[in-house]
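We emphasize that the prediction below concerns an isolated chain of 272 residues; any contacts that depend on oligomerization or on bound cofactors are therefore not represented. The input was used exactly as deposited, without trimming of termini.
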Amino acid sequence: MEGLLEDVPRGDTEMKGVVLAGGLGTRLLPMTRVTNKHLLPVYDRPMICYPIQQLVTCGIEDILVVTGGGSSGDFLELLGNGEEFGLNHLNYAYQDGEGGIAQALGLAKDFSAGEPLMVLLGDNLFQDSLEEAIGHYSQGEGAMIFLKEVDDPERFGVAILEDDRVVSIIEKPNPAPSSLAVTGCYVFDFRVFEIIEGLQPSSRGELEITDVNNKYIEWGEMRHQVLDGWRADAGTVESLVRASRLVSENRENPVLRGISMELDNSNQYPSE
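Result of the prediction step, given as a token string:
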């Protein structure tokens, strides 16, 4: 497999979006004993709504939601075809088991149809639209990651930069050589699926997204953007509470406000 830009077909393309919403959510037990964590509320709507709204705000309308477990049907019942987001259609894929983020992304191969993908982890919320940031990506440019300065980088994958180029990503280092955490947003060209097919499971028994990113770094084809606004990872009880607070304080932000998911009141009990 070649990693050279010359091997990449060029021309006009339309970026597609993928939301990865699987996992067991063990850090959110006991709440996740009965539902997928991405269906838990963040302020006034389910968590899954925020990454979808982010993609729509970026102008992406062809979206795949990858989920798994016993609550998968609840995503379809909640989201339907995406009408609440102004979409005509939503795509769904099912991850059987817990094979890791990269394995879940691999399920998007047929959906991608050779187009670049903007990939969001379903528990990541961003204050600002990423539309301008992804505007720096052009077809055939390999991959792009989005970084954020954090106070606790040892909790995340950390990017090492030299001469403003990403030279390495280290998963949860302690002590951390950098404060630039890799957020749960990525852009990949079509070769990401070749990389995933060549991965070996980590010590956790999973296909790791960090290994995917490091392959693009090895090729010299990893771009990056450093984000200004806040980013929230709603994967723990504390961060879930923080995410709800941040959203409540930014309700005029269209990325967070989105399209109101109106309740059907036709079956409500009449008031006395």
